Amino acid sequence: CVLLVLMFLVGRDMFDTTTGLMAAALFAFEPNMLANGPLITTDVAMTLGLFLVAFAGYRYASRPSTGRLALFGFALFVAVASKHSAVLLAAIVPVLMLADLVVVERQGP
After folding, report:
1. Distances 83 to 4, 44, 66, 68, 73 between C-alpha atoms, Å
2. Do residues 52 and 75 lie in contact, with contact meaning Cβ atoms separated by under 8 Å?
């Protein structure tokens, strides 16, 4: 349920309310989430953690602040605490941040 609400909030934040509702609806009826969501496994928690890391990184890159950096760190903590394979984020996050810098540099201010 938390991931579903976050899908809506992120879609609304990045685009508009309609997009947030569409993202939440697509997520709610996605077969893997319908099958694995009710089970108590680390996969759903890991999905939540990865989604939080991606969104918190996006928010921090768009307008850096101490609070957003703290949220980014908390998202990394949630991801790593949910499943040990989230250690791969140590390689993924720097690549995403570098890619963001390259894209922003090309687009200009």
Report:
1. 20, 10, 26, 23, 16
2. yes
The region that residue 64 occupies, defined by phi over 0 for left and psi between -120 and 50 for alpha, beta otherwise, is beta
∠106-54-50 over CA atoms, to 5°? 150
**Which pairs with CB-CB distance under 8 Å and at least 24 residues apart come from 9-15?**
10/51, 10/55, 14/58
DSSP string, 12-78: HHHT-HHHHHHHHHHHHT-HHHHHHTTS--HHHHHHHHHHHHHHHHHHHHHS--HHHHHHHHHHHHH
Which regions of the chain are under pLDDT 50?
Answer: none
**Which pLDDT score, from 0 to 100, does residue 106 have?**
65
pTM over 0.85: no
Query: Over the stretch 24-40, which tens digit does the pLDDT of each residue have?
Result: 999 889 888 788 777 76
Residue that has been written with the tokens 């989430």 in this structure? 33
Separation between Cα atoms, residue 28 and residue 5, nearest integer Å: 10
